[in-house]
Amino acid sequence: MKKLLVSTALMLSLALPALAQDYSPDPNAKPGGSIIVTYKDDVATLDPAIGYDWQNWSMIKSLFDGLMDYVPGTTTLRPGLAESHDVSADGLVYTFKLRPGVKFHNGRELTAEDVKYSLDRVTNPATQSPGAGFFASIAGFENAGDGGLSGVEVVDPQTVRITLTRPDATFLHVMALNFSFVVPKEVVEAEGADFGKKPVGTGAFKLTEWTLGQRLVFEKNPDYWVAGVPYLDSFTVEVGQEPVVALLRLQNGEVDLPGDGIPPAKFQEVMADPAQAERVVQGGQLHTGYVTMNVTQPPFDKVEVRRAVNMAINKDRVVQIINGRAVPANQPLPPSMPGYTQDYAGYAYDVEGAKKLLADAGYPDGFETELFVMNTDPNPRIAQAIQQDLAAIGIKAAIQSLAQANVIEAGGAGTAPMIWSGGMAWIADFPDPSNFYGPILGCAGAAEGGWNWSKYCNEALDAKAVEADSMFDPAKSGDRLKLWSDIYMGVMEDAPWAPVFNEERYTMRSERMGGEDALYVDPVSIPVNYDYVWVKE
């Protein structure tokens, strides 16, 4: 990896401001009270090293903490368990100073040994963590196992030093991921495989009951290290609730938050009722749905053909198919992602212009191809709309509607000429533009079995991506985001994708729920930030 050239005598002091400067408590917030949240399915696990789905993410976030965190309702990093950190001049050594007096739910004080144990554990192949790969830049990752990570050192009880093998501007985001959350060794070892059902962390809430198939109860941690929060005394997650039933219970005042959101079949009905629509919360998520085109296969090896596809798709009509619960996309990054190019219009919907591009590419009469799609609603309907749009410019796309695993297999093998990504589309793991590039647009992701289904590889853009992720100095963050913007504009010039829409999150809250809307569609504490919501009564 290319290193950022700076004086080796320079130390970048990156001590972050106190929490009060990062987030102003809601002056209207009232402490106390309890709420009820519903989900159709039971929770799989609350082990932060293993849990990795929409449902358990925010519960894990309320039970545990990492060295870094985010300002509630935003994608802005702030201090977590580490009250400050320093980065060496070459960007390879991070030294974290822990907050004194932080306690686990069992009353024991957290130390640097717990941080090392937690990072060693998540990267140990025996843990089988789906997030282990996020730590690949830490020295010793390749040999991680029972011996732990050589790059994670305990300096003293309050200090941890982490050495990387390459500069990585995303590293602080990784330290805020749930996979980095700190766990107590003695509890993990005592509970073994049951730790995910009997979690102990340092978070704002602690789990006091889990009746499988029925409910989970989370109660306020009176020793939480952030003053003044959480506001709630407790929250209960009831499982086994069909979304339509949960909505009815919400309407009857029996439920405060429907975890699965507004059922699609009821969306128009809810939005047509002013009283209900007033309680609907909408927010962007770090998601893009797109059509991939295999650039290694004719006719998609010609950029004019790929641009024609971009111009042929009526994105507004596709958004209507999902009841308007998205905004048309014009680039790979979603609008709420840092690095999004605000003044870029993308490819306009232009049927005649698309026909001309096809003719220029040597296909005046169009061609035949296949469009692969996951076979769960609404994705086949979206594929049919795209199929009709392509037919209008002479492209006859036969739809291959298959199980998710089969579509993913065809994409990874490179046997699918086109894929509608719906149901498998990218949602960022953390709010940094690099997360949308490497796995799904970079050269490495184009390898067999990878998620870069367009098999697109632009080595010049890859080199710029390496340069961008070597810019670890926060003072250069503006330059870094500009570089990422340029990278994605380069992608759109090559047009390996046709970005179609960015899904919006819609949920509802009961009349008694307080707090700003962003907390209910939190881009990081998906789907809701329990630590900062409150009740009015």
UniProtKB/TrEMBL annotation:
Family matches, as CDD domains: PBP2_NikA_DppA_OppA_like
Any signal peptide, and if so, which residues? 1-20
One Pfam family of this protein, by short name? SBP_bac_5
**Main location as per UniProt:** periplasm
Where does this polypeptide localize?
Periplasm
Which positions fall inside the Solute-binding protein family domain? 77-446
Identify the keywords attached in UniProt to this record, alphabetized.
Signal, Transport
Membership in a protein family: Belongs to the bacterial solute-binding protein 5 family.
Instruction: From the Swiss-Prot or TrEMBL record, give the protein name.
Output: ABC transporter substrate-binding protein
Q: Can you name the source organism?
A: Albidovulum sediminis
